[in-house]
Specification:
single chain; 501 residues; Fumarase C, Chain B, domain 1; Fumarase C, Chain A, domain 2; Ribonucleotide Reductase Protein R1, domain 1; 3 domains; two-stranded antiparallel sheet; 18 helices
Amino acid sequence: MESKVSRRLKEAIAPEVREFIFVPRLNREFQANFAYLTSINQAHLLMLHDTGLMDTATAATLAQALARMEQEGPEAVELDAGREEAYFNYEARLMEIAGRDAGGRLHMARSRNDMGATVDRMKTRTKVLDVIEALAAVHQAALARAHDFADVVMPGYTHLQPAQPITYGYYLSAVADTLLRDIDRLNLGLGRLDACPLGAGALAGTAFPIDRQATAAWLGFAAPVPNALDAVASRDYALELMSSIAITAVTWSRIAQDYYVWSTPEFGLVEFPDSVASTSSIMPQKKNPAVLEYLKGKGGHMVGLLTAAMATVKGTNFTHTADSSRESMRSFYEALDESQRCLALLRLIVDQARPRTENMLRQARANFSTATDLADALVREAGMSFRDAHHVVGGVVRRALDAGIQADLIDTALIDAASEEELGRPAGLTAATVADCLDPARNVASRKVLGGPAHPRVLESVQRQEQARDRILEETRRYRSRLSDAARTLKRQTQELAARH
């Protein structure tokens, strides 16, 4: 029994090759790629006819056959792993409908290599646009809550130790700034994949006088990929976009880690509704942060997918190979799909998390996070250098800890004693000054410098980010509109060609 797709190969595909490579590949790819293959075939057909490379009668027959296949859908194609790939199975069905001669003429001036590269870019741009929208939804939720909670004072942390008072709204505005960069990175990556490989052939173009600009336009691309070898050899746009997704995943994992810690009874800073939690099979009191653990785990998964894809491509030659163009892209598409799910869950978490405002304020009052403001006051009003003020306040904190005094109960006597010990003179701060420094709400309100947590600055950040996000989303809206316009033109002109039969 010979190969079903080549007279060069005198033996049929081995059962192991069929079952382990081609059956899974067909099941995975044919339905997912069918619409893209149809559009590519239609664009190529229109170009062949317009350039005079195919007569009208044959072109009309093929246009009708492609329209029928599009209407029937992928389910109407009987898949045969003996034909190896999605393309050969598609072509076999086309030849059944249009006839062997007409159906066999469509593959003039192209290869599976440039078709596959084009499918990848078409599929990628659609999925990336969806990921951008999912990220924008998280960003919008974060900014909405940043606005709502701009006055909710909480401890800020470095090294997971109390650092300085901030607000919960300020934290969310910082998260949103990071997410905005994630959106921008993906949007920039969209621009770099906006070129069409079709017409590159196997790797060296074709001797037929085709019009690559025309097929690129019908498929919604800004231009053809300039170099035919690069067009089929490179999937670096996928590695770039997957890198951006991995960076986003690191961000959502870190956010999840904050919530993971803050929602424990020991911190008691935020709480979640029961609808985003799970429980224990044995411990009836448990409310486990299932969604947060999922997000953290998937963060590592995204980094692993990127590493797997890059390691796969690293050892390939700079040309078309199945390992570089298929296995690496499997990781990429998995990353795109997983990221959409994770971003939907992240939006839910950001939207549903509620600050425990009294606990937040109580901890910010008691945990010495206001100490920096006290040091600043010694610089301003006691004439100390900051390093001396740092030593004095360090001594104050040590005395307070030894005496079991929480931060908001520090008084002038304690400060003067520490100053006498360090500098040989009292600090001389007034009780009112000390009270202001140790009040976390006043502490936050005083930090009005650009980037600070004061209420007006948080609201400015929200407004700035909303405008920046809207500008990016307007770009992606125009991108989607261009794709829709090109698709409508392609389908209309294919129908017009079919009508000439």
